[in-house]
Design a protein that fits this description.
The protein has helices spanning 2-14, 18-58, 69-93, and strands at 96-98, 103-105. By secondary structure, the protein is mainly α. It has a domain at 15-94. β1 (96-98) and β2 form a beta hairpin. The chain binds zinc ion (ZN).
């Protein structure tokens, strides 16, 4: 049973305390909230552009890309922010736990190797 001994040791070494796990969940929640705020910011920018374009076209003027350069750049910056937030989210979510055995499992695990529960 050497393998199982080793596994048990590894599992207990990597197991997190309840408060550490709680802070992981809080971290994911915070990141999700931040992402929603940034997504709202992007929607506001879309609206600004939409109003501007509508106003211009109503008077049958053309709208050039140059006129909207600042807004386009702003949206690109927001998109970058969302991308990096999503990376952090993936990292934060990577940690899975078996609630029954109280052990930490890696991201790809679908069934707990100890009790066989679906994760
Ligand atoms: Zn388990």
């Amino acid at each position: 049973m050497r393998f199982l001994d080793r596994f048990t040791t590894t599992a207990s070494n990597s197991a997190k305390t309840l408060s550490e796990r709680t802070s992981d969940f809080i971290e994911v929640g915070k990141l999700n909230m931040k992402r929603r705020r940034i997504e709202d910011e992007i929607i506001e920018k879309y609206e600004e552009i939409g109003q501007y374009v509508y106003g211009r076209l109503k008077k049958s003027n053309n709208v050039s890309r140059e006129e909207l350069y600042q807004q386009l750049k702003h949206i690109e910056r927001i998109e970058e922010k969302i991308k990096s937030l999503e990376k952090n989210l993936v990292e934060a979510k990577k940690i899975k736990y078996c609630r029954a055995c109280d052990i930490e499992l890696d991201d790809e695990t679908r069934y707990c190797p100890i009790c066989g529960k679906l994760i």
